[in-house]
Design the sequence.
C-alpha cells in the first residue's frame, strides 16, 4: 500500500507531497544502518573470538554447562563463535525485527539452529523459566552494545537488567571490562568548534555575546574521528588519565555516577578541550584488548589496529580550573555520567559545532569580506538569504545603506556590538517579500554564503537559487548576486575505511553472513543505491584516483531554469587503486576572482592525498562493487548527472569503463 507523505524539500524549500510505499522508512533504516562496518573489522572480530573461546574454556574448566546470552546479536556472529568454541546453547537477542530475521536465516544457513535461539525482543523484555524465552540463566554474557560514548545504545540499563534477571551471579562476560581515558588539551582548532571568536572587519572587532561566552555549550559529545585531528593542532596539558572502568561480569548500575582524576599540569596553557576514548578487555587478565585510542597515541603508527568507530569528547567533563599557568600544579578532572549542562545562549542549538568552526574560519571570513568590499557601495540595499549568517553584519560594517535579512538571525551578536539598528530582520519568507517590506527600495545586492541548517547534501544549498528566483521582481536591474555561481565537482576515490559501511561481507571469520548482505542490498535497491549520501570526508581518509572534474554549473545571476540541466562525460583514471565511489562537493564563485570550496581545500597531491573542508559534509556515491584501476589511462570514470529544477534533485549515474 502507498500513502501520500509531506516532506520538506531542503533544496526548493517547498513542502512536497510524495507517494511512498509504507515500507519506505523500513528500507531506508536498513540501507543506512552500516551493519557491515563492524563485520569488516578483522582485528575486532578476532579479539571477540579469542575472548569468547577463553570464556567458554573457563566455564568448562569449572565443570559447568555453557549457556551464552548474546545481547544485540545483529547477524548472530558472536553466538556462532560461541557455539564453535564449545558452548552448549546460545540465546541471541535482537530487537530490530529485520535484523533478527536475517540472524535467524544466517544461523540456519551455518547449521546452528539446534544450538542458537534468536529472540526478537529488547533484552529487558526477555523472560526466563519453563514458559519463558530462556529456559535457564546464562553463565556467559556476550554483548556488542557500545557506541562512541561507550555507554550509549542503552548499554548500562541492558547490563543492569541482564545481571538482575538473565545471567547467573559470577558469570563470565565478553567483553570483561571497559576503561575510559581522558586527556586535557589546549586546541584553538577544536575550541573554535565550541565558542564564537572575535572577528575583525575593516578595523571593527565583532565580539561574541556574553551569553555565548558563558554558555556551557551543546549538551552532547563532539563525535569525531580523533585520529584525524592532527597532533600539531593541540597541546597536551596533562597526562592521559584513566577516568573509570566498568566490570561487565559483575552487576552494573545505570544510575548517574561521577569519577575524579587528579593530575599535575605538564605545561602552561588554556584548558579548552578534553579528548576521550576507551578500551575494552575481552578477558579478566587484560591480555586481549580492543582499543579505540587515536592513532597518534601509538609511537609506531604501523601497529595501530584499525577500527571503524569514532572517538570523541565523551560524556561530560568538568575541570576545577579553567586556565593553567603553572607546570606541576595539581588539577582535578571530573567525569559525570548522564547529567550534563545544557545550552543557555541558544546559539549552540542553532549552530552545529562544524558551523561554529566555519564562522571562526579567518581565511573564509577574509574571502567573504573581500568579495563584499569589491561590490558594495554607499547606497547599496542588501538582502541576505542564509541561516545565522554574519554576512549582513559585514555588509553593514562595510558601509551599506540598508541591510535586511530573512531566516535565522544573529540578534544576540547585533545587540552585543550595538548594531541592532544596522540590520533589519524580515520575519517572512522570500516569496512573500514585497517592495513595501524593503521600504520601496529595490535590492542592489543579494547575498548568501549560502548556508541552511536543513541542508545535508552539497546541492541542498541551492535553496539560495530558489530564493533568488522568488525575489527576482524585487531586484534592481543591475543587482549583484553573491555568490554569482556554484559548480558541482566530482572525483573518484579509494577510501581507507569508509568503504566498509557499504561493502558486502560474504563470510566473516569463516561464517556465511550473506543473508545480511542480501537484506541490505534489497533495501539499497529500493532507492538508496541510486543516491549519494553525506559524509564529513575530513574524518575519513581517501585517495583521489582521478583529477577533480567540474560537472554542473549553476548560474545564480539567472533564475532557476524550467528545464532539466544535464551533464555527461568521462574522466580518465590517473591513480592506481581500488575505486570505492565518487566524492561530490560544491565550489561557490563569490566574485570573478574569489572562490570558496566546500570540498577539497588544496590541490590533490601526486599521490592522490586529499584535504577536505572540515566544516561541511560532502556527498559520496558508493559503487555496488569495487573495481581495480591501473591509473595508466586504460579506464575512465563515466558520469551522467541531471539537475531536476522542479524537485531540486540531482539524479546521478557513475560507472567505470574501458575506452
Sequence:
Amino acid at each position: 500500500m502507498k500513502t501520500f507523505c509531506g516532506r520538506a524539500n531542503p533544496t526548493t524549500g517547498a513542502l512536497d507531497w510524495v507517494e511512498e510505499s509504507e515500507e519506505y522508512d523500513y528500507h531506508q533504516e536498513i540501507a543506512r544502518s552500516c551493519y557491515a562496518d563492524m563485520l569488516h573489522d578483522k582485528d575486532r572480530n578476532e579479539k571477540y573470538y579469542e575472548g569468547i573461546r577463553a570464556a567458554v574454556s573457563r566455564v568448562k574448566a569449572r565443570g559447568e554447562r555453557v549457556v551464552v546470552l548474546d545481547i544485540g546479536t545483529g547477524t548472530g556472529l558472536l553466538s556462532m563463535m560461541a557455539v564453535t568454541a564449545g558452548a552448549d546453547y546460545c540465546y541471541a537477542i535482537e530487537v530490530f525485527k529485520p535484523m533478527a530475521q536475517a540472524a535467524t536465516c544466517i544461523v540456519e544457513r551455518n547449521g546452528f539452529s539446534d544450538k542458537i535461539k534468536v529472540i526478537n525482543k529488547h533484552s529487558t523484555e526477555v523472560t526466563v523459566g519453563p514458559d519463558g524465552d530462556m529456559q535457564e540463566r546464562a553463565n556467559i554474557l556476550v554483548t556488542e552494545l557500545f557506541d562512541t560514548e561507550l555507554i550509549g545504545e542503552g548499554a548500562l540499563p541492558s547490563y543492569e537488567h541482564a545481571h538482575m534477571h538473565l545471567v547467573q551471579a559470577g558469570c563470565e562476560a565478553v567483553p570483561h571490562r571497559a576503561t575510559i581515558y581522558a586527556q586535557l588539551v589546549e586546541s584553538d582548532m577544536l575550541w573554535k568548534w565550541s565558542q564564537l571568536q572575535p572577528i575583525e572587519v575593516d578595523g571593527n572587532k565583532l565580539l561574541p555575546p556574553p551569553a555565548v561566552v558563558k554558555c556551557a555549550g551543546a549538551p552532547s559529545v563532539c563525535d569525531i574521528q580523533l585520529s584525524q585531528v592532527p597532533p600539531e593542532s593541540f597541546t597536551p596539558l596533562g597526562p592521559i588519565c584513566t577516568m573509570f572502568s566498568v566490570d561487565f561480569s559483575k552487576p552494573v548500575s545505570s544510575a548517574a555516577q561521577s569519577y575524579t582524576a587528579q593530575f599535575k599540569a605538564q605545561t602552561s596553557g588554556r584548558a579548552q578541550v578534553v579528548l576521550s576514548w576507551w578500551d575494552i578487555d575481552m578477558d579478566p587478565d587484560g591480555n586481549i584488548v580492543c582499543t579505540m585510542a587515536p592513532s597518534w597515541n601509538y609511537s609506531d603508527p604501523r601497529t595501530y589496529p584499525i577500527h571503524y568507530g569514532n572517538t570523541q569528547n565523551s560524556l561530560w567533563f568538568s575541570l576545577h580550573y579553567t586556565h593553567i599557568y603553572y607546570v606541576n600544579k595539581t588539577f582535578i578532572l571530573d567525569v559525570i555520567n548522564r547529567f550534563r549542562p545544557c545550552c543557555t545562549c541558544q546559539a549552540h542549538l542553532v549552530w552545529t559545532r562544524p558551523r561554529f568552526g566555519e564562522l571562526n574560519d579567518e581565511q573564509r571570513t577574509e574571502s567573504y569580506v573581500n568579495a563584499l568590499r569589491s561590490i558594495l557601495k554607499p547606497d547599496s540595499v542588501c538582502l541576505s538569504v542564509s541561516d545565522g549568517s554574519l554576512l549582513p553584519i559585514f555588509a553593514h560594517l562595510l558601509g551599506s545603506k540598508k541591510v535586511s535579512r530573512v531566516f535565522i538571525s544573529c540578534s544576540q551578536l547585533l545587540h552585543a556590538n550595538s548594531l541592532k539598528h544596522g540590520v533589519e530582520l524580515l520575519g517572512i519568507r522570500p516569496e512573500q517579500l514585497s517592495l513595501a517590506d524593503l521600504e520601496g527600495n529595490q535590492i542592489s545586492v543579494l547575498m548568501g554564503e549560502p548556508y541552511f541548517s536543513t541542508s545535508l547534501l552539497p546541492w541542498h544549498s541551492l535553496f539560495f537559487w530558489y530564493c533568488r528566483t522568488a525575489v527576482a521582481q524585487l531586484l534592481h536591474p543591475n543587482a549583484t548576486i553573491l555568490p554569482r555561481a556554484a559548480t558541482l565537482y566530482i572525483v573518484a576515490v579509494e577510501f581507507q575505511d569508509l568503504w566498509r559501511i557499504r561493502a558486502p561481507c560474504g563470510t566473516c571469520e569463516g561464517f556465511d553472513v550473506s543473508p545480511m548482505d542480501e537484506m541490505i542490498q534489497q533495501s539499497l535497491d529500493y532507492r538508496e543505491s541510486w543516491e549519494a549520501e553525506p559524509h564529513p570526508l575530513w574524518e575519513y581518509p581517501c585517495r583521489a584516483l582521478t583529477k577533480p572534474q567540474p560537472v554542473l554549473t549553476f548560474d545564480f545571476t539567472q533564475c532557476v531554469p524550467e528545464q532539466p540541466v544535464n551533464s555527461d562525460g568521462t574522466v580518465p583514471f590517473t591513480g592506481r587503486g581500488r575505486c570505492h565511489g565518487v566524492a561530490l562537493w560544491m565550489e561557490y564563485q563569490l566574485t570573478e576572482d574569489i572562490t570558496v570550496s566546500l570540498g577539497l581545500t588544496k590541490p590533490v597531491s601526486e599521490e592522490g592525498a586529499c584535504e577536505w573542508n572540515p566544516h561541511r559534509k560532502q556527498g559520496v556515491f558508493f559503487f555496488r562493487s569495487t573495481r581495480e584501476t591501473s591509473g595508466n589511462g586504460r579506464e575512465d570514470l563515466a558520469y551522467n548527472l541531471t539537475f531536476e529544477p522542479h524537485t531540486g534533485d540531482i539524479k546521478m549515474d557513475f560507472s567505470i569503463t574501458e575506452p
Summary: Confidence is low (pLDDT under 50) at residues 306-314, 322-327. Residues 42-61 form the longest helix (20 residues). The chain is about 20% helix and 30% strand.
